[in-house]
Amino acid sequence: MTDDPAARPRRGSAATIYDVAELAGVSASTVSRALSKPGRISASTEQRIRAAAEQLNFRVNPIARALHTGRSSTLALVVADITNPVIFGIVRGAEQAASAAGYTLVIAESQESDATEAEAIERLMPSVDGMILATSRLADDRIVDIASRKAAVLINRAVDGIDSVLLDVDEGVQQLISHLSDLGHRSIAYLSGPDRSWISERRWDGLLGAAEERGMALVEIGPNAPTILGGREALRRVRAARARAVVAFNDLIAIGLMQAAAEQGLEVPTDLSVAGFDDIFGSELIVPPLTTVRAPLVSAGERAVQILLHRLGAAAPPLDSGLLDTRLIVRGSTGQAPPPS
Amino acid sequence: MTDDPAARPRRGSAATIYDVAELAGVSASTVSRALSKPGRISASTEQRIRAAAEQLNFRVNPIARALHTGRSSTLALVVADITNPVIFGIVRGAEQAASAAGYTLVIAESQESDATEAEAIERLMPSVDGMILATSRLADDRIVDIASRKAAVLINRAVDGIDSVLLDVDEGVQQLISHLSDLGHRSIAYLSGPDRSWISERRWDGLLGAAEERGMALVEIGPNAPTILGGREALRRVRAARARAVVAFNDLIAIGLMQAAAEQGLEVPTDLSVAGFDDIFGSELIVPPLTTVRAPLVSAGERAVQILLHRLGAAAPPLDSGLLDTRLIVRGSTGQAPPPS
DNA sequence: TTGTAGGCGTTATCAG
DNA sequence: CTGATAACGCCTACAA
Asked: Which of A1, A316, A330, B273 would bridge with B245, disulfide CB 3.0–4.6 Å?
């Protein structure tokens, strides 16, 4: 006696399993089973259900599923600054790995502020299955706390007991120092990154060790904002230090330094050798092209997702679980040390 | 007679409004009200509820809320290629505007494939409140279909009846053509973008109009992949065409062309003037720095989000609703036309 | 193999 | 102003 609404979902909104069930003449739970665990259901009904779902253009509602299962098939990637080209590679790698596994990636930017970062994390926490912290400004204990509540993986930072994707800085740093040494440099200035940046300190440590080995002098100039502007502003102190070879925390700083140097008539690499880290887009575009320690950023993003998926039981562990290699890319910004004056 | 579990939520998982309610000695619905619409509740109970929520470290579960309200406070941004620097600005603007409004941004990459794009959209559709299609490869009718099911806004593409953020190409193009004309160029080659790219055709149309006005010759060379490699591969045809002034679909193509030209001993801008579109990161880094038509990408991303939020009733309409201005940035890659031979 | 009956955490409706 | 109660769409014991 009621009219038959089976052929279409109610009022414009998306079809539900009930609509499909009605059309296929089965119960909603059967539909649910047919769609989520194929094979555990009679072939003929499964056939009918699939046809009905198709006809209704049905999609499971990930939100409803997530509410019940507690898993949203969503991963969060938290970064300090989206405009930093270092992030691009990580984002790309993570996005590809995530979507290949049927996961969605949400991106949050902390804008270099730990308060903003903490807030973004809290906000995202209930709706993601895991978090990737790519350039966290958070203190170790905050990170431990986060990881205790949700699967988490760090990129380029180590905290005891927390999964992380680490780069083998030493490898590239050794190559870099040896390269500069070969060019006759005996003294190096390191333009450090932001204060309390874990990765900046790792790079500094690596440089320190490598410089000591070769009896080279090393001074630190910083902290510097990890941006082109940060590099430009560092020139003054570089000149004051009479540095002839500068290693910057990242390529952005190196590029800024080179720009400012050029404006003041300083020749790179004749008067000043400059090297960076990361090998971002743009590093080989500038003149002279930048000598830099390349980091496999895309792989880092990929691996972070793989680790997370493995932790979530949604994938096999990453094939290769060691450190990611870094290596020196020699281009034109480093040259022979000027003769001692 | 039962033990009192009020002080902590059950077994490790996050606290719910019931936990808060129990601790505060009120009902769950009161908690819900107190937290979502402050003021509509007695000050004292609201006080107590807030304290209890605080103590339990309670966060509303966005998934549960979304299931009931049908709104997830999430926006999707669909792009063709994350590695394309044009996207960076859009992502940044969109992310900032979204998170400022308490919205989450999810990013999906279609990898230049319309099938992948359609799939990503279908997958995201049920769990977002709106979609931004930034570089869609989809046909008009598919887009219309999507927009009929979910709030949608296009960037850099117009489809009848669909909201979009458009750039005033003509403005920048006029300036560019007039600039080249002033330099004595009478003939221009346009390196077009991907086949069926809406924006490439708009740029072509603009160039055509401006060139006609000035009686300049214009030829199209393409289609080209919108990448550095695409630009490199175009050099051969540029030489064959004896072009002295080239306008590339985007900066990436322009940069690739300049690289290849330099390798073959062609001087820019002496032998060849090159200009691009977008003013991406890197355009002013290369040598000579690239003359380009700047697009306000960050603003485009911002405005797309604003439009969406307005459509969703979550914000006021964008203050300025006209076309976004583009304008010529003259740098070193364009120069005097060589004397007629 | 299939159906029934909760329940996931929240909000909205409707009484009180 | 506050408290029951019923959805939201899906999944999963438990029954049949």
From this structure: B273
